[in-house]
Amino acid sequence: MLVTKERERVFEERLSEHLDGLYRTALRLEGTERRAGDLVAAAVRRAARAGRRTASEAAFRIELFRRLLEEARWTPPAGVIAPERSTSGVSDLSQVTDRGLLEAIDSLELPFRLALWLHDVEGFNIREVSQLLGLSLENTKRCLYGARGAVRDTISSLRLRA
Predict the structure, then answer these.
(1) Pick from 3, 53, 76, 78: CA 20 to 30 A from residue 134's CA?
(2) Global pTM?
(3) Other C-beta atoms within 10 Å of 74: how many?
């Protein structure tokens, strides 16, 4: 009994460091706060039930995000992902608001949004993103390239309208 309580305490301590990131990612997946909260809760329950001990913090974090994507029923797209080529460049981002940036990210198709979010916002390396999304390393790189170009284009068009 004492061992179980100690495991639960350690799990909760480790989990607390990652809850914000899980929630932000779930919000990008689901779009509403309530659905994102439900998704995170379900993913955390599954991770706790699995009870796997992960030696490193990175492995624990990957396991949590993997459970989140499983709960969201994420399936990688088939075939090669071909991003739109971006030719525009934004030289001055000082006028871009956080809200504008989030809207630009949220306007992306899901594979591009997830790759960008997990890599550039949550800080996973390219191999971890590839593993989490079930994409080849090349497709993950294509997703990041396409996502960054699309966000640049969206921000450029917002700045032009302002």
Answers:
(1) 53
(2) 0.75
(3) 16
